[in-house]
Write a structure and sequence with these properties.
This protein is α/β, with parallel strands linked by helices and about 270 residues long. It has two domains: about 190 residues, Rossmann fold, CATH 3.40.50; about 70 residues, no CATH class. It contains seven helices and ten strands. Strand 9 and strand 10 form a beta hairpin. Helix 2 crosses helix 3, helix 3 packs across helix 4 and helix 6 crosses helix 7.
Amino acid sequence: MTTTVTEAGPADGTSAGAAPSPAARIAHVSKSFPGPAGDQLVLDDITLDVAPGEFVTLLGASGCGKSTLLNLVAGLDAPSAGTIETPGRPALMFQEHALFPWLTAGKNIELALKLRGVPKPERRPRAEELLERVRLAGAHGKRVHELSGGMRQRVALARALAQDSRLLLMDEPFAALDAITRDVLHDELTRVWHAANDDPDGRKLSVLFVTHNVREAVRLAERVVLLSSRPGRVARQWTVDIPQPRRIEDAAVAELSVEITEELRGEIRRHGQH
């Protein structure tokens, strides 16, 4: 099997006379890491497409390879087998905000713009626009230590959006936050995602979001993908037809979460029997 990671097609994922290509195409991807007893298979034959504008959550038990898969899509590592294609370079947001503490909120965003080649006179106005988009207007001059945990994650989101990618990869970005702040940021992320997909330029923002929280997965996603315990395989997928806006305590969210939790428990039990 050929092993490649490529960036395919133009930034909007379209070509003349053709349907839009996926925001991410993961084809028969496996990943092994060396261990004391030989190579350990972490991901096994993963095939998954993320459509333009789609919000997909990756769910599974700890150690099933969710973050490994996200790193492969981001290009931070290479698969042992299979191919990954993305139209342009994805933007990545981690559990930790990873902001530079010696820079202000705005300067953190401006740095991303600089690396993207945005001319200097345009960077501050663009950074202020992005801060306003995540509801942090006026925070350009704030130092990282002056911001709450939720505000830091909003800046991290604005910095990810500054990369102007059509694919946003999120690795448990709200896991360390308290429940109320996390719920607020669920609303903010959903709002930003919808606003990006209403852009008149026709370019769509897709999100691939890793979590181990079942209700968070259902609260946010259009599709939930469950990975089996190690080695990670696509065990099952659910289309989430619950209208947005959703609340994490909504009855429909709770009902689907119960079903997915039972499947997740089954995967954990099967893993424990090996």
